[in-house]
């Protein structure tokens, strides 16, 4: 049972209480207000958004998402050494992520999405041996994608989208063997997609759209990611043919998004292997040849966009077998003949 904070606390617990108060002090806006309970009348483990372990009464979870908070994150967060989860998502925190956060060796989940953090991700996080999720989506973070992340062998979700990260994707990301989600949409990444990403055998979602990935092929090695459900590489500068192994990924179910690149060549007939695919977008490329009749094998397909390419010849009559199709866009090609009924 929690006790009043008027009772003397062990030194470690008092450190947690003082650290929480230091975090509160750097928050200027508290819309709801969440910090009304953060006072001396009750034990800090009963404060809103705070959870403690039963045994040691140390803070293990700081859950303050979507509370309308405005301010910066205090370096004292690094003193909450029993923390497993920090969730400050969907607020208006600004300033840098304090380097003291690297002391949180028990951390499993860091969610700072939809804030205004800036600067770089601290480089002293190599001790986060238990970390499973890092979500920094939609901030103003920048710098090159740090290779220190590559040492986080327990990481399953890495979400870096809508920031200002630049430079190339480290080949060492291929060492993140537990990774199931890698998302870095809307950044300023350049260079090629590392061949080493093909070692991410547990990967389910890969999102690298809206970057500046330059005139290199999509690596064949992505065909080794046999659990991949969604592949987003659109709005880059990728060239060459779509690798054949991509069309062997029967696991692809959510979508294959390769639009707005400079891809060339035909769609191979093996595309019929993607029988579980719901969304196929190859629009705004330089693809050519005929539209393969094997597309009719994609019986759960809802969206098919091949617009803005150099496809020619008749539209296969077999496309009328796509009973679940909601959007079919074949515009701006060189197609002829009748539209299948």
From TrEMBL:
Alphabetical list of Pfam families matching this protein: LRR_14, LRR_8, LRRNT_2
GO BP term (any one): defense response
Domain of life: Eukaryota
SUPFAM superfamilies, per database record: L domain-like
Domain Disease resistance R13L4/SHOC-2-like LRR residues, every copy: 74-237
Subcellular localization: Cell membrane
Keywords: Cell membrane, Glycoprotein, Leucine-rich repeat, Membrane, Receptor, Repeat, Signal, Transmembrane, Transmembrane helix
UniProt similarity note: Belongs to the RLP family.
Name of the protein in question: Leucine-rich repeat-containing N-terminal plant-type domain-containing protein
Domain Leucine-rich repeat-containing N-terminal plant-type as annotated: residue spans: 14-52
Topology class, membrane: Single-pass type I membrane protein
Location, primary (coarse class): membrane
A GO cellular component annotation in the UniProt record: plasma membrane
Gene3D superfamilies for this protein: Ribonuclease Inhibitor
Source organism (scientific name): Rhododendron griersonianum
InterPro entries the record matches: Leu-rich_rpt, Leu-rich_rpt_typical-subtyp, LRR_dom_sf, LRR_N_plant-typ, LRR_R13L4/SHOC2-like
